[in-house]
Amino acid sequence: MSVYLRNLSALMPASFTLPEPLLNCFTWIEDQGGHHTRDGGAQPQDHWLSIYPPADLTNPAASMVAFGGTALPFTAAWTTPDPAIDARIFELAETSGDGARAALWRDDAGAQYFVHIGHDTLGVITDDPVVFLQFLAMGYPEPGALARTDITPLDAALEHHGLTDADDLAPDDHPLPPTAFQAYLETTFNVPLPATARALGIPDFTPYHAPDATDPFARWVADVTPPPSEADLVYERALMDTVEQLDLRDTDSSDIIMQKIGGLFGRTDP
Asked: Quick check: helix, strand or coil at residue 168?
């Protein structure tokens, strides 16, 4: 067993089994020099895999995807954490700059799915490990922040920057596909990489608290999440009041935003 897999397995609940395509893929990535550590790799969660070669790790155009587990349970932020819920979710990868994750989830029948846990959305990605790997290999700038799955990685980059013409994108803003990773998947599993995630059968992800959600993972999370406590509601109201006081606008520059924040807390620029 590779170093990465040994550490990932130490974090994995006993109810999960890593599919063989993931085992083989993770070993291949490590063999290519894609295994990295934080803080010297003292803890299992300090080990991670990059889908890019070391030379591309700091390239701003690289997709925000890194395989790695966490020691932080899914319900850690709940007023009363629930080990039974935590045993049914195992985070596998970081998929966006705001902390979105991809994870394994077991439904009530015990079936295992790959799911998206984002800042604003969540939902089932697929139950097929090869499709899951293909999705992360497509080169989307942030797979975990994908608003629509029927667009290409280039379309996603244009949408993020508010542009319609690829010629207007700065060189560093053009998506950089993980070509070696893509070639490994195509050769190993004999599957071509489609142009969009929708072509892989991945629907748009579901907004949190959507009243008409049909996605099974979204519905399950809504069912098991306890209602907010009074302290939570007080905090949310205070946060909303603060946002209203800031009066942030789409046209505000970074300097103006910082001035508004400083003014809110009684600071002024020297």
From this structure: helix
Using alpha carbons, select from 119, 127, 65, 115 the residue that is nearest to residue 94: 65
Distances, alpha carbon 203 to alpha carbons 10, 138, 225, in Å = 32, 15, 23
> End-to-end CA distance of the chain, in Å?
58
Contacts of 212 (CB under 8 A, 6+ apart): none
Q: Tell me, what amino acid is at 236?
A: E
What helix, strand, coil percent values describe the chain, rounded to 5? 40, 15, 45
Distance, in Å, from the CA atom of 173 to the CA atom of 184, rounded to the nearest integer, reads 25
Q: Are 29 and 50 in contact (CB under 8 A)?
A: yes
pTM of the model: 0.85
Of the candidates 258, 201, 235, which has an alpha carbon nearest to the alpha carbon of residue 79?
A: 235
**Mean pLDDT, the chain cut into blocks of 10 residues (270 residues total):** 94 95 98 95 96 93 96 91 96 94 97 96 98 98 95 94 89 92 98 97 94 94 84 63 73 69 58
Short-list 134, 174, 127, CA closest to 154: 174
**DSSP string of 221-265, one letter each residue:** HHHHSPPPPHHHHHHHHHHHHHHHHHT--TT--HHHHHHHHHHHT
- The Cα 188–Cα 144 span in angstroms is 25
Residue that has been written with the tokens 């990489």 in this structure = 193
Residue 139 contacts residue 178 (beta carbons within 8 Å): yes
3-state SS, residue 34: coil
Q: What are the backbone angles phi and psi of residue 73, rounded to the nearest 5°? A: -65, 155
Containing 7, the helix (H) or strand (E) segment is helix 3-11
Length of the chain measured in residues:
270
